[in-house]
Amino acid sequence: MRRNIKIVVFAFLILIGFESVSQTQDSYDYNSEFTWGINKNSAGGFIGGFTFKKARRLNPRLFETFGLEIMNVKNPEEMRVQSYATGNYFIFGKTNYLYAFRFQYGRDVVLFTKAPQQGIEIKAVFAIGPSIGIVAPYYIERAVNGNFNRSINEQYDPANPEHTYEKILGTGYLFQGLGDSKIQLGGNAKIGFNFELGIVKTQVTGFEVGILVDAYFKQVVLMPKATNHNVFPTVYFTLFYGSRK
Hints:
Elements: H1 2-21, E1 32-41, E2 49-59, E3 62-73, E4 80-82, E5 89-91, E6 96-112, E7 121-137, E8 139-144, E9 147-155, E10 168-171, E11 182-196, E12 203-220, E13 229-244
Antiparallel strand pairs: 1-2, 1-13, 2-3, 3-6, 4-5, 6-7, 7-11, 8-9, 8-10, 11-12, 12-13
């Protein structure tokens, strides 16, 4: 984790240095853009979540941004295992999900502009804002009285003698127990780099990399017998697409 953070910071310093000596290309003008993206990060799964951002130009090299990120945050100790009885996968020891809704206000600083239909536009990205964490129960399917032909779905409880590894058949239904969720409040901040690769003036295509810290006022218990946290630092990568005008 520390190595990844050092790489991002080092890249930032290099880009700032190059920007001071680079020559500005004849760029195509636009005043606003809206993008959405698919996120991969070090605190999420194969797909960490989704991002949405609205930006409007304040001056030739500065944009004001309003963003929303919807993420599934995981405990670093989570591991998918297979049921002996069914072969289905589940996360043993997990009792809650954390769905993070991150609202962000920030600035995008243009480091390198691009000419129409060529080159790459690079921005430094800064954003901060409140986070709303939805802590939802993690349901497992387990055998009833040791009978694998009968099962019941309920929230995993490490103190329940019926929730041993051998008796768990898999996970519950998608979004099961969401109505019993609890709210955790906090905040988030991020710094990154945005690389726009599109060749069409009215469309945006590219990716963003950086680091983000998501923090909550209370500890978020995702796995009762593991180390739980209220601060989640992550390295992220987002593929995005959108439109501008």
